[in-house]
Amino acid sequence: MSIAILLAQIFCLLAALIHFGSIALVTLRGRAGRLDTANPHGQPPVSILRPVCGIEHAIDRTLGSGFGLDYPDYELIFCVASASDPAIPGIRRLMAANPAVPARLLIGDDRISINPKLNNLVKGWDAAKHEWIVMTDSNVLMPPNYIDRMLDRWDATTGLVCSPPLGSEPEGYGAEFECAYLNTYQARWQLAADALGQGFAQGKSMFLRRENLDRHGGIAALAADPAEDAAATKAIRANGQRVRLVRQPFAQPLGARALRAVWSRQLRWARLRRVTFPAFFCMEFLTGGLFPIAIATWLAFNDAIPGWIAPLLAVAWYGAEAFLAKNLDWHYSRRSPLAWVLRDLSLPVLWIAAVCGNGFEWRGNQMDVKKDSLLATEAD
């Protein structure tokens, strides 16, 4: 047996074990999760900051979900950068229709970085009344037990609880492609890492105590990296604390998505991961089913393994993703397997594109992950 064939066999075996193992871990973790009715923190007052920029799919429903939380004491703070933002009238209507929930709309842009979302959040952070703070994107659909599910993951070692985005309600092939990336790929890996004690922050929903950032200069500490969630991960770990993820992620209704927009967003995230967590980014090139299935096919052609193993591996590989999605009630349709295959075919291309460039566009801002200083303002 040649060294090349031996290494190929070892790679296929390890890739399969990691793939199926991560799916089993996340499935068991999600199904076993139950809210702890004896939460040691009780239900402390919480400030919820929601940065808003423009009209997004189902925005009335996602922003409106914040008014229906089953929680005794919380406030909503909507942060909008521009007075001409088209989302403002809708926010005012929601506030008027739900007078029992304390809510404020703050308008203005504090340029502490070139990160537009972070600049939009500064005024909300300063205005928040409570010690416990949630920063939640405008396109997150908040279930009634949203805050309790965050608190359920808090313990003496925790400094931040977050949730990766979980794509739901896709319309068309572009949105299916985005679901393929968000759900059984990115969310699965993040939840598996959290189960192993290596949780990373995800900016869609971040829940923390104010003091955990005040040790590093307050919300301005999140300007230390190109993405606020990467900066939050490093700040919390510098405190000797852990980042933990909710057991079941919160949904993000996608609606219709253009493939070009989906690809642009994935490229932006990949380039940000490249500079914020380079060691983990390097391993992304080999993730997905493309290389294990292709190498197994090559081994079969060289009579190194039986011919039926490669097709069986392909069926089992994507069958496991279907098992995960169905068991955790994540989005699954007849289009999903094709979307997963296309995603895995695109992963090496995405990785190479991320390595070969530094620029991306974010909310109309042209940014560069290498040249731009995130501690300087965009105006400068």
Automatic annotation (TrEMBL):
Q: What is its main location?
A: membrane
Its Enzyme Commission number(s) read: 2.4.1.80
State the Gene Ontology terms under molecular function: ceramide glucosyltransferase activity
Return the InterPro entries for the record. Answer: Ceramide_glucosylTrfase, Nucleotide-diphossugar_trans
**Which biological pathway?**
Sphingolipid metabolism; Lipid metabolism; sphingolipid metabolism
Localisation: Membrane
Q: Which UniProt keywords apply?
A: Glycosyltransferase, Membrane, Transferase, Transmembrane, Transmembrane helix
Domain of life from the UniProt record: Bacteria
Q: Give one Pfam family, short name only.
A: Glyco_transf_21
Q: Cite the CDD domains for this sequence.
A: Glucosylceramide_synthase (cd02520)
Transmembrane regions listed in the UniProt entry:
6-28, 275-301, 307-325
Q: How does it sit in the membrane?
A: Multi-pass membrane protein
Principal EC category: transferase
Name under which the protein is recorded: Ceramide glucosyltransferase
Q: What is the species of this protein?
A: Kaistia defluvii
